[in-house]
Amino acid sequence: MNSEAPVVDIRALAALARVDVSDAEVAKLETEIPSILKFVETIQKADISGVTNDTSLRNVMRADEDPHESGIYTEVLLKAAPTREGNRIAVKQVITRKNN
Amino acid sequence: MDLSKLTIAAARQDLDAKKYSALDLTNAYLDAIAQKDGEIHAYLEVWKDSAREEAKRADAMIAKGDIYPLTGIPLAMKDNILIEGRTASSASKILENYHASYDSTVTEKMKAQGAVFLGRTNMDEFAMGSSTENSAYGTTKNPRDTKRVPGGSSGGSAAAVASDMALAALGSDTGGSIRQPASLTGLVGLKPTYGAVSRFGLMAMGSSLDQIGPLTKTVADSKILFDVLKGNDPRDGTSLPDVASIAAPQKKVIGVPRSFLKEGTDPDVLARFEETLKKLEKKGYEIRDVDMPNIPYSLAVYYIVMPAEASTNLSRFDGIRYGLSAAADDIKSVYGKTRAAGFGPEVRRRIILGSFVLSAGYADAYYRRARAVRELIRGDFLRAFQSVDAVVTPTCPAPAFTFGSKSDPVAMYIEDIFSVPANLAGVPAISLPMGTVVRDGSTLPTGFQILAPHTREDILFKIGQELESA
């Protein structure tokens, strides 16, 4: 991408991001996103040859241990859910027959 | 009581001396809100009844001598910090009817001290913006000039404190969202060291950048709130361990990255900055140029790293577990329709930008490269702090701007140029008033930013207090 502008397919990105976009918004983003990318392109000039992969930032995850007693937060969390069935969150069908 | 002169420290003395009750104080702020907030619109919701109940409980604590720094102190909360049972919307339609399932750690700490929560404040949706114009619930006006924005994203918190509708407020700062509104409204705004204050119960935007911090009228009040909020929290994996801070001897040297400041900075803001440096010289500080060759890349790095993290964090808002849920036949359509209906334009823009910089084929050139440059920026700070106590810059390149004047996204992003380096490097930074400039007949505040090494908020408070008394 150093010399040529990146290909920005807004519809494909919106699909990846799981957000529906209107034709008008696609047209707007087709000018805005490349202009933001042009602005951030300056980092290509930085000399990163001395930087190792071992950066000072690392991902931190909670240890998967010592679970709380089952069910004690069920009601308070389900109260926030848009649709529930019993003690479960109800969702729409995930796999459909006519796949597109 | 004169709210315009009141600080947390002064109110503490008055409450303890029984000059007035916590209920009187809370009522005075509720009256001020009733009088002024119709015009300013700092608050999305005012919790009158519960605030009075909390004030009465605080009065009972004071009567018993069970007194903490925040007992009976009326504060405002940014709309992205959870208080159990209350609406927390991040000024987004997607969370319009969301009630927090639990208290954030900072909420717990404030409740334990008997603080009074006046209400939740307006903000840019999911903290994305520098003007509070991206709220789904209308704009907030700058109390110093109502034709202008209060800054953002913690614009409601800043406007509430600047117009004496709260004694202090909490905000969150991912790239300047506490310091920039503090600068534009004439307040003190602190972004603590990354990991100093727990983010448990703060709605995440950029997880490697976000910090909660206070907006206050004085440096002393900033320290009072920081001392309450800080501390290790096992519920936040990025929380720093509690260590006794060692006050290393000060060199009395302050660094200025001059080559970074010139371009695009308002000449009057630069003049106020130079005057402030003179004041520091009078206080016995040597002012020295520091070479930080990589910090000019900060804004570009930030606008890659932040959307990448934000697009990841905001994937949780999908219409399934909480918040808005659009009706559709299959789950993929529920996601797409919910997020289209619930997120505003700037949030959608950043999610799509984040998806791009993380996508296969571009992640190396954008996201991974930005991470490497970020490491260089951090290195610039570590090197600078070997020879200086603190680095200083203006907080923002210009004073508050008028509504609608930065409709181009990149023009708005440039507002963050001096504030994002602190978030990228994880160092603490404070903004405090550095005098005013006149624009179209309005006298507008400007901000002076001090940055210190990791965990050295004490240096920010010390230099800040010296400047306040200069």
Structural account:
The complex is a heterodimer of chains A (100) and B (470). Chain A is flat and about 55 Å long. Helices cover 30% and strands 4% of the residues of chain A. Chain A is mainly α and 100 residues long. In chain A, strand 1 (84-85) and strand 2 form a beta hairpin. Chain A has a two-stranded antiparallel ribbon with strand order 1-2. Chain A starts with 9 loop residues before the first helix and ends in an 11-residue tail after the last strand. Chain B has an 11-stranded mixed β-sheet. Chain B folds into 2 domains: 3-229, Amidase signature (AS) enzymes (Alpha-Beta Complex); 254-288 and 390-468, no CATH class. With 470 residues, chain B is α/β, with parallel strands linked by helices. Chain B is globular and about 60 Å long. The mean pLDDT of chain B is 96. Chain B contains 16 helices and 11 strands. Classes of the chains: A mainly alpha (100), B alpha/beta (470). At the A-B interface, helix 1 and helix 2 of A face helix 10, helix 11, helix 12, helix 13 and helix 14 of B.
Q: Estimate the strand proportion of chain B.
A: 5-15%
How many separate helices of chain A?
Answer: 3
Shape of chain A: flat
Quickly count the helices of chain B.
16
CATH architectural group of the largest domain in chain B: Alpha-Beta Complex
| H/E element order of chain A | HHHEE
Unreliable stretches of chain A (pLDDT < 50, length at least 5) are none
Biggest sheet strand order of chain B reads 1-3-2-4-6-5-10-11-9-7-8
Distance between the termini of chain A: 32 Å
